[in-house]
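Hallway conversation turned thread

IA: we were arguing at lunch whether anyone had actually written out Cytochrome b end to end. Turns out nobody had. So, for the record, here is the sequence (401 residues) and right after it the structure tokens. Reply here if something looks off.
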Amino acid sequence: MKYSPRHSNPILRLAAGSFYDLPCPINISMWWNFGSMLGVVLVIQILSGVIMACHYTPHEGLAFASVVHIMHDVHQGWLFRSVHSNGATFFFFCIYAHIGRGLYYHSFFLEKTWMVGVTMYLLLMAIAFLGYVLPWGQMSYWGATVITNLFSAIPYIGQALTNWIWGGFTVCDATLKRFYVLHMYMPFVLAGLAGVHLFYLHDTGSNNPLGVDDSADLVPFHPYFSHKDFLGILIMVGLLIQVVFLEPDVFGSPENFIPANPYKTPLHIQPEWYFLFAYTILRSIPNKGGGVAALAGSVMILYLLPFRMKCFHSGLAFYPISQVYYWSFVSSFLMLTFIGMRPVQEPYVFMGQVGSVMYFMYYPLHGYLERGWDTLLSYIQFSGAVSGGVNTDYDGFQYVN
């Protein structure tokens, strides 16, 4: 009897067990597609970044000119640069959808998978910030100045740490060189963490929209979900290509078309859209130390979710009040993102403070809402059983009085 190569070859058997024959819940929806999309975007970013690195010059006097050289003189350089810069936007869009699905369906109870995923998110934010500095335009330079200055709020060692990051007393050539080196090597660390993330996910298995045990209702990944993932990837790549060819600068800042000038500060300094929610939280607090702590807490709080109380169901499918509260949390995130693009004036300051409170209050309260809903249903069920004259004996059988 002959076996297929994926069963007889040890390497193919390992790959088949992780992808081809991987048992998956039968009812997972399109929201589970964003994990595979993230893997594809990561590959696109690494390949396009390596190609551009062959022509980029990490020097404060030549960096901006080298980007112009890539755009105008390198064969298809404009394509690789546009794919890389807009690919970062699609990367964060996919990861926010991925994290949002994890919050809604309580994927954080897969502790190891979630912890590695949050670490990947933090690393991705660092990589994106480092890459944004490399073009050495006005917004790149002043964005680096503002963000790195936040380390000076750390007591005792803050200013020394900031000068060490800069390699001097201001953002300078040494800063650009070390940011370039880190931006080149950290994506490979991210790819390694992605492998660890998949290992833990395949070890425990995915959760499902109903949040119930589905060990008896599993199907192989191929062909049921491989085709669905391929369709999602096709749509995402199609949208990326459309942006690259039709609106390549739609997500960029006009200030970054001007070479960096340390003597002229832009009227409104703001990071890329995927950092705006945290930037709004930072500027909503008048105290610098408190703002930096809130900025860090807005992301680090994700590490605490696996330790919150567990409820009867995993996910919000059976918690209507919690569903409304979840979408109010999403609304606060979108509001903070919008306010980050506005000047620091009323009513945006007050709206930012309200949005920040809504953002942070979600994490401690949503568990209590679910626990309260479980308690309410238990009370209704118990009172209905008593009023109907139904008792339960010690063997678990019901009988009517």
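OS: looked through it. The chain has a mean pLDDT of 87.
IA: good, adding that to the notes. The first strand starts at residue 23 and ends at 25.
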